[in-house]
C-alpha cells in the first residue's frame, strides 16, 4: 500500500471538483490548498475537515479529527485513510444557456402570440462545498468539469429561464419588442429569480447575461405586430401633431380675442368723450 505525504490539486485548473487519486496518507503529510479552492476530507460519507487556501502540516495534534481517520492497514506506520476532494470556490465563468425551442409569448399590448428565442451565459460560485459534494461526490471518479455540471443542470436552468422570460414579457406594461430592448434589466431579473435552482446544489448564481433575445422575424405574427405598432405610432404622431396645431391656433385665437377686446374698449372710450362734450358746447350762446 502506497502512502502519500503531499496532498494537492493536480487536476484541471477549471475543474469544479478534483478527487485526489489516493486515500491513504502519512500522518505529518503536507496539504497544499491553492487560492480559489477548498480541500474537503470525507470518510464514510461524513465531512471531517474543510481547509481554505494555505499549506498545512497534518498531525493529530493540530487536527484531532485525523485520529478518527487512522488506518489499521498501514503496516504499523502512522497513517490515515479518507477521500480528499478539492472544490473550486472561485467564480466559474461562461456557462452557456439558450432557449432549446422558441418561447411562445402573448404580447400584453397587442394580444398577439409571438415566438421568442435567445442565448447567453452565466457565472457560478460554489458557496457550500459540503452540499455540492453531497450531490456529486458519489457520482464522480476523478472530478467534474464546468461543462459537465452545466449539462447536469441544463433542463432545470432552461426551464427556469424560459419561465421567467415568458412571465416577465407577458406581464410587462409595454409590448414585447419594447421590453426586449431593455435586456440588462431582464437579465438581472432572471438572475435573481433563477438563483434557487443553484442554491439546492450549494452554488451561487453570480452573474447572468443575455447575448441575444429577440422575436422570430420569420414568424407571421411578428410581421403583424410590427404593422400594428407602426399604425399605432402613426396615430400617436398624428394626434400629437393635431394637439400642437390646436395649441398654436388656440394661443393665436386667445391673442386675437384680447386684441379685439382692447380695440372695442378703446373705441368705447373715444365715443363716450364726444357724446359728453356735445351738450356742453351747445349750451353756449
- Report the average pLDDT across residues: 85
Task: Spell the H/E element sequence.
Answer: EEEEEEEEEEEHEHHHHEH
Shape: elongated
Helical residue percent band: 40-55%
- Percentage beta strand: 25-35%
Strand order of the largest sheet: 5-4-8-2-12
Structure class: alpha+beta
Largest sheet: 5 strands, antiparallel
Q: Gyration radius, to the nearest Å?
A: 39 Å
Low-confidence stretches: 273-285
Strand tally: 13
Count of DSSP-assigned helices:
6
Distance between the termini: 153 Å
Describe this structure in words.
It is a single chain. By secondary structure, this protein is of the alpha+beta class. Helices cover 41% and strands 30% of the residues. The chain is built from six helices and 13 strands. α3 packs across α5. The longest helix is centred in the C-terminal third of the chain and has 63 residues, at 220-282.
Quick structural summary:
This protein is of the alpha+beta class and 285 residues long. Helix content is 41%, strand content 30%.
Outline the fold blueprint.
Blueprint: E1 4-8, E2 17-19, E3 24-33, E4 37-43, E5 46-51, E6 54-58, E7 79-81, E8 83-88, E9 92-98, E10 103-106, E11 113-126, H1 129-136, E12 143-144, H2 146-152, H3 154-170, H4 176-181, H5 183-199, E13 203-215, H6 220-282
Parallel strand pairs: 1-3
Antiparallel strand pairs: 2-8, 2-12, 3-6, 3-7, 4-5, 4-8, 9-11, 10-11, 11-13
Any descriptors?
single chain; 285 residues; alpha+beta; five-stranded antiparallel β-sheet; four-stranded mixed β-sheet; 6 helices; elongated; disordered C terminus
